[in-house]
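Cadherin-related family member 2 structure dump, as promised
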Amino acid sequence: MLLFFSMLGKKKLSENFLSFSLAQNTALGTILFKVTATDEDSGLAGVVSYSIDEVVPDDSSLFKINRSGEVLLNGFLNYANKSTFYQLTINASDGGGELYGQAVVQSTSAFAFITIEDVADLDPDFLNLPYQTSVKEHTPVGTSVFKVQAVDGDRGIKDKIFYSIKETNAPGLFDIDRNNGVITVKGEIDREALLNITATVNLQVMAEEENPNIHGQNAMTSAEVIIKILDINDNKPKFYNCMESECDFSDSSVANSFTGDIQEHASGGVPVANMTITVRDQDEGNNAKFNLRLEGEDKDAFSVSPTTAMSSAQVQILVKSPSEVNYESKTMMRVEIVASDVANETYYCSTATVTIALIDMNDNRPEFKQETYQLQVNENSPNGKALMTITASDPDTADEGKITYRLLPDSILPYFEVGKESGTIFVKNSTLLDRETRPIYFATLQAIDTANNTGTAVLEITLIDENDETPEMARDYYIDFVEEGKDGHLQLQIQAFDKDEPGTNNSEIRYRIEPSEFSDNFTINEKTGMLENNGPLDREAIDPSLNGAIKLIVTAYDLGFPSMSSSVNVTINVEDINDNKPVFAPDTYDFSVNETEKGAFVGLVFAQDADQTEIHNRISFSITDGSFGNFIIRTFYDKDLKRYRGNITVDPDVELNFEAVKNYTLTVEATDLGLQEDRARVKVKVLDVNDKPPTFEDGSLKDLGVKENTTGLGVVRNITGTDEDTKHSLVYHLLSVKCLCNLNVSADDCEKDWFRLELSGSLLVNNDFVIDYEQCHEVQMEIQVVDILTEKGVNHSSPGILKIHIIDINDNAPQFISSETLFVVVPEVAAKDSEVGRVTAKDRDSGENKVIVFDVLTVEFIHSNGDKETMSNLFYADTVKEIEDYAGIIRTSNTLNTNLKGRYLVTVGAKDKGVPSLNTSIQLDVYTVDSSFRVQLEFRSSIQEIDANIDTIKGVMVSATKATVHIVKIESKEQAQRASEFTVLVAYFVYPNGSAIIPSNIITILQEDRTAVDVLYRYGLQYIESGEKESKEIDPVYYAVAGLAAGFVILLVIMITTLVCTQRSYKRKLKAANAVKSAAFMGADNRHTGQVVPGTNKYTMEGANPVLNLNIDSATDLGFDEEGSNIDRVSLDSLDENLDINMSEKENMHMMMIQEEDEENPNEPHYIEPLGAALAQHRKKDNGETHTFTNPSLDTTDL
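C-alpha cells r here:
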C-alpha cells in the first residue's frame, strides 16, 4: 500500500511527510490537506479507510479526516491558550483479507507537522495598572512625569504600540511620547488655577497598535492616569472686601483700601464698625499661613485681630488706646494692615489702607463708680437669673433718671442682657453658658444720657464650674507598634482631657484597662496613663487573622460627683521578627520530564515559614546544586494553603538531552529574607523523546569506484546511519543524482539511473543500464537518512554526497576528428622533414588508454594516367599533444621527385597505449605540383630590393590569385644588351584543392587586380613566363616571315605618313592621337593568352596587332577622319602608360568625343614625336597628374 500527500502549497518533505503553517483563525471545517493511499489488492482488501492515529499534543478532537482522506479542522485554534505546533499521525488501512492462511489487515502511516501562526485579533494591554503620580506646580516644560507601557495582546506578533492622550480634564498641560509612552509637562501648571478640579488632572491615555488587525482596524485600549498637582509657596495673602463666609474670593473682590467708623474715646477692644475685611492665601497647608500687623501713623491707637491665620480670616480693627481716639484731635484716622507669608515675609506680603472716621460724643457722659466690675454666675444657671445691678451717674441734671443702659458688643447679647433703665445684668440663655466652652465673658456696659453721651464700664463675667463634662480622650483611637520578643518594649501615653475647671475633682482624671483577652499582658499608670507591656510578646501566639493586632480598651474617668468617664480603643501591633525558618513539607521529591522540551514543567515543591508577616515569612526558592544550568525554579504564594510553592521547569533556553544525562539530583533551597534556609532533595528523571536527527556513520559516504561496462555486481555499498534516540527507525532516500560528464567540472542531472538506493540503505548497480565512463566519469548521489519515528524536531539528516568514480577501461579506439584528407605538396619546395599534411584524433578513454601515437602505414603513388606505384620511406608521422586531442603531422622523409605527376595515397594509423591496444587508420590524398606549373617573374630591381620586399610582393600575389604562393628561388641575372641588373623570382601558385595555376593564366589574373599591378610595377616587374624551358631549333621559314612582316610595316608607315601630310596639318594629327588615351580597355573576350615576346607587347598569336595587341577589323580605318571612324582601343598590357582607370570600368569604356581646337595656336608647344604630344594631352586632361612607366629598354620607335 502506498500512502502519499497530494496538497499544493504545502512543504512536502517526502511522500510520507508534510510540513506547513496554519493561521490560528482558520475557519472550522477547512480542508487542510489530503492523503491518498493506493492498494493493488482487489475486493475488500483493496478498500482503503483513513484515520488519525495520534495528535501531539493530545487534542484528538481538533482534527478529523473523512473517508476520502481529506483532513479537516474540527475545532478552534488559539495561539495564546493552546499549542502552537501539532504533529498528526495518519493511518491508511485496507479492509483486510487472507495472507498465507491468516486474516491480515495491511496499513501504513504518514506524518503531518502543523505550525500555528498567530493573527492580530487582541487589543493591547497596559502593564502595572493603576497609574497614579504627582508633580509640583510650575514644573518646567518637557520634564518627564510618568511612563505608561502597553504590549500587544497577540504575543506571537508583538506589534509596535503608539501612545496618545485621548481625553483630559486639563487640556494643554501634559503630552505623551508617541513611541515610548513617557508623559511630559507640556504647558505651565498653576495649582491654584486647577482648584475647580481639586488640583487633580485626569488623563485618558490611548495605546494603539501600528498595523491593522484581522478586522482591518488598529487595535487599541485606554487607561486612566491620575496626576496630583502639588502646591509650592507661590501666592501672597490678598485682601477682599467681603464677609469670609460669603466671599467668592474672585479678583473683583480684591481690595486695597477700606473705610469704617468708631465713636471717639471708644473703649479698648471695640471694633471699628461698618467695615468688612477678609484676608486669604490661596496656597495649601503651611504655605497658606500668614501674619497680620498694623502700620501707619495711627497704628498705636488700634490693634488687629487675629494676628496669625491659616488660609483665610475675617479681620477686625480694635481700639487699643481710647485716649488717642479723640474726635477733637482727629476726625479721621488711618492705619495699614500688612498681611505677610510666614515662610517669606519679604516677598509674599500685601498691604491694605484702612480709613477710620471718628464720631463726635457728648462732653459730659454718665460715669460708673468702677471702671471694671467682676461678676460670677454658675454655668447652666436658669434664664433671668440676676447677676448684679450696676448704675451710672451723670453730672448733668437734665440726664438724671433718664440714663439708659445697654450691653456691648452685640455678640454678648445672646448670653446676657441688661435692664434698660435698671442696669441689672441677667442671664439670657442658660444653654449657652458653658464654662468649658467659654469660662469668662467681657462686655461693655454703656450708660447713655439724653444727649447720647455714653459712659462705659467693663464687665468681667466668670462662670462657676459644675461637673458636667465627660473626660475626652486626646485621640479618637491609639495605634502603636512593638516588636515581638525580649527586645520589644511598649510605652504608649494615653491622654485624656476634662473641660471642667482645672485643679478640681471635676477635672482630675484616672485611667484603667478594661478586661479582655490580652489585657493581662499590659499595665497602665492610673494617674499618668502610660501603657506598657508586662513581658515579651509573641506574634505567632496571636491569631494570624488579627495580623498581629491586639485590641485594648482604656477608660478615663474623673473624680467629680457624679463621676464622668469615656473610653478609647487602643491597638497594639506586635511587629513580627524573623524568628522562624522555612520548612519543606515534604523534603524529598521525585519528578520526570521529557527531553528537548524547552521550558517544560517538572514539578512543585512546597515550604512554609511560621512568621506571620510577608517580609519574614516570604520564601524564595533556588536550585543550589545539581542543575548544571538546565533547570529554573519560580516562587509562587498559595493563598488558600498559606504556603509557598516552587515551580520547577526546564530553562526556556535549554533542551535536556536524554542521551547525555538521564537523571538529575537537585538541591532546592528555601530562603526567607533573613537568609534562614531549609533544603529539599529533588530527583528528576529525563524521559527519552525521539528528537535527534539521524546522521551518517563515518565512512558510509566514502568515495566509491565502479568499473564501467560491468553488470551483476549487486550491492556495492551499504549506507548506514546512526540515531542517538533509543527508539528509532531509519530509512534512506535518494534526493538527487548528478553526473560529471565529458570531464566537465559542473554536475547535471543524469540521463540514466546506473545505481539504485534501497530504503534499507543498500546501493545496487542497476542492471537495466550499462555504465559507460565515456558518457559520465563520476556520479554524485545526494542521500538523506530519515527517522520515521521522530516525535519532535527535524526527522532527517543533512544531505550527504556519495561520489562514485567510474573506472575507465580501454574500450574505445582512437577516432580521427579532422575533416581534411586532401593536401598538396610542391616537390621542388618540400625539403626533408617538411610538413605535407596534418591529422587530428582523440580517444574517449582516460589515462594511458587515451594516449595516441600516429604512424604512416603505407604510401602509394597514383600517376596522372591512373597507374599505381607502392613506395616507402617517403613520409613519417610526428605525434603532438594538443589541449584535448592529439595531432599527427605528416612530414617528408626525403626530397620528392619533382617530375612525378599525380597524387600520393598515404595511410596514417592512430594507436592508443591501452592494454590491449586499439587502433584505427585514415587515408590522405597528397597531390603533387610538377615543374610544368613553374612560373618565372622578372623584375627590373636588384635582388636585395626584392628580398627586402618579398613579403609585400608575395602578399599581393596571394590576394590577387587566391592561391598559395610557393617561392622556389630568387636569383639575380644580367643581360648583355642591357646595362641594368634584373631579378628573377621562381614560384608555384597552388589552390587548396591541389590544382595549380598554369603560367599562362597568371598574367591575366594579375592584370585583373589593379592593386597587384601597381605594386608589382613599382618593384619593376618586366614580364612573366613559364619557368620550364625547352630548347627548339629555329626554322628558316621564321626568318622569311619576319622579313615580310617588317617590309609590310615599313610600307604601312609610309602610306600613313603620306596620307596625314596631305589631308591634315601636323597639329590635327596630334589631336587625333588624343583619341588613343580615351579608348576603353579591351573586354575579357579580346584578351590573349600566350607567351610574351621579350622587349615588346606582342603576343605570339596569329592575328595579333603588333602595336596595340588588338585584332584588326577590316571595317575600321585609322581614325584620322574627323567625320566618323572607330576609335582604336589600347591594351591593358601596354607598358608605356598606366591610365588611371578603375578595374570596374576597364570592361566597357564609352568613347569620348574630342573637341576640335583651333589649329592656329601660337602658344602650343612643339613636340618632336606624336606620342609625346599625346601624352602631353593626356596629362593636360588629368589636371596635371602624371602617370608614367619608365622602361629604358624601350623607346617610342619600338612602339
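Helices lie at 614-617, 943-948, 950-961, 999-1007, 1010-1018, 1036-1063, 1066-1078, 1170-1181.
lmk if u need the other ones
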